[in-house]
Amino acid sequence: MDLPKGHPKILIADDNIQNVELLEAYLAGIDCEIRTAVDGEDTLRVVADFHPDLLLLDVMMPRLSGFEVCKKLRADPTTRDIQILMVTALNEPADFERGVQVGTDDFLTKPVNKVELLCRIKSLLRVRHLSSQLDRTLAYLAEVEKGRDDGP
């Protein structure tokens, strides 16, 4: 799979070990670093330590739901730019609406289709890469402008 340069970091958050193993197997062909989390609170801890580019987030987890995790990540300036793909058995319009309200970037319903998963991951990682490039370019331009204002 053709992804942006570097090794993207992907966090799989799901309390069902079979789901985690399946997602890990699907990601085996991607040159990336993978970590896992088993519940909502564990997810927040791993995010703080691992700084993933993409989070594959189950909604129905113990301690904190995926909705609550997503809301907390979006509220924190250090984690708000992580791409979040909710992977869920929920498929009611109200569930999707709630996910959008808390800030998810995309949804995938279980059972997960491998091709669809890989296409969504590729797309979300490309968005993350382009967003990082844009942030660096804007910071550089701000420095250039500041240098002009401080000129002779």
Would you mind describing this structure in some detail?
The protein has 152 residues and is α/β, with parallel strands linked by helices. The chain has one domain: Response regulator (Rossmann fold), CATH 3.40.50. 51% of the residues lie in helices and 16% in strands. β1, α1 and β2 form a beta-alpha-beta unit. α2 packs parallel to α3. The longest helix is centred in the last third of the chain and has 36 residues. It is elongated. The model has no long low-confidence stretch (mean pLDDT 91).
| Strand order in the sheet with the most strands | 2-1-3-4-5
Number of domains: 1
Number of helical segments with 4 or more residues: 5
Described by the principal axes of the CA atoms, the overall outline is: elongated
The CATH class is: Alpha Beta
The CATH topology turns out to be: Rossmann fold
Spell out the CATH superfamily. Answer: Response regulator
- What structural class should be given to the helix and strand makeup? alpha/beta
Distance between the termini: 50 Å
The tally of beta strands, per DSSP, is 5
What is the N-to-C order of secondary-structure elements (H for helix, E for strand)? Answer: EHEHEHEHEH
Topology diagram in text:
Elements: E1 9-13, H1 17-26, E2 33-37, H2 40-50, E3 54-58, H3 66-75, E4 83-88, H4 93-102, E5 106-109, H5 114-149
Parallel strand pairs: 1-2, 1-3, 3-4, 4-5
Relevant terms:
152 residues, alpha/beta, Rossmann fold, five-stranded parallel β-sheet, 16% strand
